[in-house]
Amino acid sequence: MDKVKSNSVSIYEIMANLFAEIAAEVEGRFGAEGEEAIRTAVRKFGHDRGKLIACAAANDGKENTGDNYLPYYDMERSELFAAESTANAQEIKQDFSKCIFAEAWMKSGMEKYGLYYCEEIDPAIAGGYNKNFKCEHDKYFLKGDQSCTFRFYMDDQTEKNK
Length: 162
Known about the structure:
By secondary structure, the chain is an alpha+beta fold. 50% of the residues lie in helices and 19% in strands. A 4-stranded antiparallel beta sheet has the order 1-2-4-3. Helix 1 packs antiparallel against helix 2, helix 1 runs parallel beside helix 3 (111-129) and helix 2 runs antiparallel to helix 3. The chain starts with 10 loop residues before the first helix and ends with a helix. The mean pLDDT is 92.
């Protein structure tokens, strides 16, 4: 038997590739309906993550305000991610210069499927965390941008428009 060289791959890269393969298969079989099913599943997954982040903050006696979002965020940030964050009482801005998910999808030519995840996940997490917490994701590595940018903020208009 030939020896296989051990190649350490992060769990993030493995999961990104798994997601892309599932998305490609579902879309290949079901077309636009399959794409929408995948996007819906990502939104549900994100919403549930957001609720868990809010619960973690509540367990420490904190409210689910913008100030408590990043301190209770559920995914560790290792050297596989690089971002500059600025936060104040009104908003959080993040500018990622490195993302293992995007790198994995670009390396495998699966950008299209990675976008199904990236376009849905953060707004869904924010909404699960607090129905008035919004996320704008303006730039994407997967669309050829040099960074991924996010803006999180509380939408006071949501309450006023009810």
